[in-house]
Amino acid sequence: MREAGGNWERIRVWVDPPAGYSTLSDAVTLARRAKRAGLKVLLDLHFSDFWADPGHQSTPAAWADQTLSELEATVRAYTKNALETLSRAGAPADMVQIGNEITGGMLWPLGRLYDGSSDQNFPAFLALLGAGIAGAREARVHGGRPQIMVHIDRGGDNGGSRYFYDRVVGAGLDFDVIGLSYYPFWHGPLQQLEDNLSDLATRYGKELIVVETAYPWTLENGDELQNILYSLDQLPDAAVWPPTPAGQLAYFEALRGVFPHVPGGLGLGFMSWEPEWTPGVGWTPGEGNPNDNLTLFDFQGRALPALAAFTPGRITTKPKP
């Protein structure tokens, strides 16, 4: 990835996952490897024992009986410790996510949004998010404090993005970077992403990263588990970007061409998710994975042409469908 022009590694951490899955100790190993390769590190704290996303934000089992004030203290201390652990290992994080795709809140049920209450539970959620941010600011790390990202999944949804970040910014929470997931087969045409990025940059004056994106290089399946994306009908621009190695490259080139147009130079770029998830590592223990055709390497681990989209200076204008 570094040889292709990539400059960041995003590393996921779960609190107490199944054996072999994304612990803080694993993050230390990967962060050291990334630093040796000349990459910066984004630490992605899920605050959960397993997958955290818009539909799943389960509180870690060890924290489940805590009151809101106790959970705030735990989140603050956990975040601080995670960052200091990487720093002591000689691989300090350059950026940290306080939660992963927290559109619906975090640390459910206490931090769940849209639970039917009149205030939609924003006070509890914002208290927990603020605790994580405070822990990150307090961490004693080498080389300067990391930037702090708040990440949701609304890359093509300007109204939803505004609704969320208006409340986070309005609460006075001190963060640096807006992170968005954008998958065209879920989040709409590329123009919607560009419009959203432009509006958010103007509205909040914060740097923006598409922290998750992917596009298929095939509709074939590399293992026994059904893939998330398996039909041309799921691709709104299949005629422009077919599910082939060349079509995947064209998608990433078009995506990269969006960022020079973001006002104020605030569009930093994109991160691929998950580029190396080839067959052999399961979605859950004992299963296959549903993303093996959304990688940047084929089923045998050979690099695909889309890696060329990471090359500095390659894209100067945005191809239009």
Automatic annotation (TrEMBL):
Pfam families: Glyco_hydro_53 (PF07745). InterPro entries: GH, Glyco_hydro_53. Keywords: Glycosidase, Hydrolase. It comes from the Bacteria. It catalyses: The enzyme specifically hydrolyzes (1->4)-beta-D-galactosidic linkages in type I arabinogalactans. PANTHER family: ARABINOGALACTAN ENDO-BETA-1,4-GALACTANASE A. Belongs to the glycosyl hydrolase 53 family. This is Arabinogalactan endo-beta-1,4-galactanase. It comes from Frondihabitans peucedani.
